[in-house]
Amino acid sequence: MFRTAFFLVSICCCNFYWCHGCLEEERILLLQIKDSINYPGGSSLDKDWVGKNCCQWHGVECKPSSSRVISINLNLTRDERLELWYPNTSLFAAFKELEKLDLARNQIGGWVMPQGLCELKNLRYLRLAFNDLDGRELPPCSTNLTLLEELSLSGNDLGSYSSALTGLCGLRNIRNLNLCSTNLDERAFPLLCLSNLSKLETLSLQDNDLGSYSSALTGICELTALRVLDLSLNKINDHSIPKCWGNLSSLEKLDLSDNKLKSPFNSLTGFCELRHLHHLDVRRNSYVGSIPQCFGNMNYLRILFLSGNQFTGTIPSSIFKNMTNLMIISASHNQFNDSISFSTFANLSELAHIDLSDNVRLEVQTEHPHWVPTFQLESLLLSNCTLNKRGGNGIPTFISTQRSLKTLDLSHSFLKGTIPSWLLDNLTVGSLILRGNLLKGPFPQSTRRNNSMLNELDVSDNKIFGELPSNMDTLFPNLIVFNMSKNELQGTIPVSISKLQTLQMLDLSQNNLSGEMPHGLISRNNTSLEYLRLSNNKLHGNILSKFSNMTELVVLLLDNNGFTGTIASNMLSSPSLKILDLSKNNLSGFIPSWLSFLMNLAILHLDGNFFNGPIPSEVCQMQNLHILDLSNNKISGSIPSCLPNISSWMKEISIDVDISVEILYFRMLYSLDGTNYARSINTRVTTILTTKGMILTYEGLPLSLMTIIDLSLNQLTGNIPSQMGHLKTLHSLNLSDNFLSGPIPESFQNLESIESLDLSHNKIVGTIPPQMVQLYKLSAFNVSSNNLSGAIPNEKQFLTFNESSYTANPHLCGPPLQRSCSCNNSSQPRDNKEEKKKKKTTLQSLTVLFFSTCGWLLHIFWDFGVSLPFLPTRTGDGSSLVQWTGALIAAI
Description:
The chain is α/β, with parallel strands linked by helices.
């Protein structure tokens, strides 16, 4: 029995290439293809295509009965650093039984002997997507490819030639045609022959320009076997939709997202006749009015995407009565302004995803009338709505019955009351977002241990008070994102947080936390922490340990606390660090030179501390530095002249200052087959900057382009380096409140991006360089309290600055000051001295004349003891009066 079984297995294995490998001639052909795809100098497939049996090579499939190659998959194989590839099609034509050929994403610019493609008469699948082909390089003999069922040409430029696609009309057995992103318009699209493609089931025309022509889509009405039609991103307007679309009786999926559609659906004749639709996507158009009632006739509908439009009124409950197959409803980012009760969805037993978020005038009622859900949701998104306004704005209680829920977003929905413990006890929830509500009370005490699936917990911007649980690591062992900022938390940061091995983002800023930062939070090995924000608390102690090991850290924000001590040598081993904010603490000592090892650092805030000593020249090695703020310290010495060495102040270099963390979102049926999607959590890094004389908050892209140097309120001396005038992309420069001397460098005329320039409260001399009037972006300028002289530039941007920009410069003249400039302005100080001397002599003469004529009267008053406020005290012999009179004349 055993021998018989072994014999049968052996025969089976021989049929699957163990006894004989691929044909030698085909193995040689494959090696020639490998050489071609690597020319010149590539190394693709060197490790994958080795050995005698090519049927076992990666991407190669053979027919068991004949050992002939029937499938070659070379998708994304050619090294992208090589030039365009021109394959010899005769190599592929030699595979007589080839059924599948995938050459997508290989930089194909054309063919050698293109007629070789015509010999692939057994070919069923041909994928040439995302190459550099144009219409001239399409197979010239499509009528020969009579068995072809799938053709993908997406991502090529086929629209440059008007007859590029006429050859496709001969593909009478084609079932799947993908022409996405091929630059098609009506002139290139084969309208007249679409009726030939009677077996076509899937037509993908995404990201073209078919909406510019009213007749571009009419031919689609002939495709009666069509099941999937993708026309997204085509600039389609209301006039482009043909009235005959009702003929597409087999259509199951229709994607019209990202177009220019406005009219209500029921004005589009034929649309409501598509009763067999399973998937309808009209996201990101400009639809107005209400949702049409005819949607209720689409009994097979499973996926309904309406988000990103301008729908108003209510969401009609009647349309959901017969939609018993509905799995996904997304109506976010509209203008619904009425109310909807969740009892509307009670009988939709297949419902897995509801998204009504960002309808700011929509009231969502989950408590009344009474209802019992038949569904088990996987995601519920109700952010930026008004939840349960008539029932006390409580958290929906039906959520406690949902045992498949993975994502719950109730942010900014006017919730009140406390957070129930059952909400944290749900074992399936991976993302819980309650941000921006009016929730209060202590942090809820969960009864679960170790089995929570929670990856993201965001309860920021509420009124939660008290202490965080001491056992965070056992309550939420899988946390990736934890945000409790903008609450009223007290006490210390639990040591258990440092035991959360998967934690990537931690934000506890703007609370009343005290004590020291847990040592384990920054010193643990293999830490995954990327974002740490503890700003605006009452933390104290040493800023960081000498043994910190935050190797993945990108953002560290510890500002506005009470940290003390110095920044120890090499305390940050974070090569990925982009933003470091230690401002407004009580730190002291020198600014460490080792900061230059943080080569990716883009924003450095050390302002508002007690740092002393010079600015280390090593700062000039930080080529990605966008913002340097050392203001309000005790820094001395001169400004390093090497600052122009920093590339980011010489040319515009944007930085990615947002942190993105991907976690498993939920299993959601976006397509008919279903796919797992990862949800990307984006934290927009914000920072407060002082520029243009104002305190502003920057975030996202504006922050990534800001370039600022702020050295104000220090003890810097010496001249302003002329090299600073070469910082062409600098937006703001503040050197105020120092002891800088010398002139304003004429090179400042080259600060072509400067918007704010503050040199006030220094000892700067000389004139304001007139060439600076060319700084057309300059909107805030201050040189007050210096020793500047001469005329103020009086044109262009300088006409917008008022007197406060120039006060306390006694030798400056011209508008906006009241002091006019004369032709001999330079000698004016000497003339003023002569004029004062002349006035003094005249006053003395008048005083002598007064006492010579009226002195006898003063003596009479003196002798009779008359007290006058301007006379001195009498001494008896009259000498005091004589001395006083003489002293008065001399003083005058």
